[in-house]
Amino acid sequence: MPFHPALLDRLERAVRRYGAGTPTDRAELASAISPLGVGLDPDYAEFVERFGGCYVGIPVYGLRNSGLLEHVSVVDLTLRFRRDGWPGTDRGLVVSFDLVGNPLVLTPGGPVTSYDHDAGRACELAQGFATLLDQHAGD
């Protein structure tokens, strides 16, 4: 699901309210994540090219984030969850985490999943990155 105009408008309003990170071009982002062994999701790449890492109803980590987010890149965040042994993080990027610390994992061109450590199971949160943003970007 690409960014439809209504979603893009909501994202831009959220960025104006909470602040943008430093945008990163697609080539730099692809180079940074390549050691992780995952491909670059086109919707995530578009988001980071436009806004960097920032808060838009949920925190979305990039290479350089806004002041509201922890100063950790998406690469470092992914590596942190992998080192801690979180299931599913080896197949994608940890682009965010929920309020209780469960990782939100984006698989390139596929679903966004999470592993609920309290329930001990994985769940699909959205069919793709743009859908996840559509669910969370405020009006």
Quick summary of this structure?
The protein has 139 residues and is an alpha+beta fold. The protein is 36% helix and 17% strand.
Helical residue percent band: 25-40%
The largest beta-sheet arranges its strands as 3-4-5-6
Largest sheet entry: 4 strands, antiparallel
Low-confidence stretches: none
Would you count the extended β strands for me?
A: 6
Straight-line N-to-C gap: 19 Å
Description:
It is built from five helices and six strands. The protein starts with a helix and ends with a helix. Strand 1 (54-55) and strand 2 (59-60) form a beta hairpin. Helices cover 36% and strands 17% of the residues. It is of the alpha+beta class and 139 residues long. It has helices at residues 5-18, 26-33, 42-51, 74-83, 129-136, and strands spanning 54-55, 59-60, 93-97, 103-106, 112-116, 121-126.
List the helices and strands and how they pair.
Layout: H1 5-18, H2 26-33, H3 42-51, E1 54-55, E2 59-60, H4 74-83, E3 93-97, E4 103-106, E5 112-116, E6 121-126, H5 129-136
Antiparallel strand pairs: 1-2, 3-4, 4-5, 5-6
Q: Can you give keywords for this protein?
A:
139 residues; alpha+beta; four-stranded antiparallel sheet; two-stranded antiparallel sheet; 5 helices
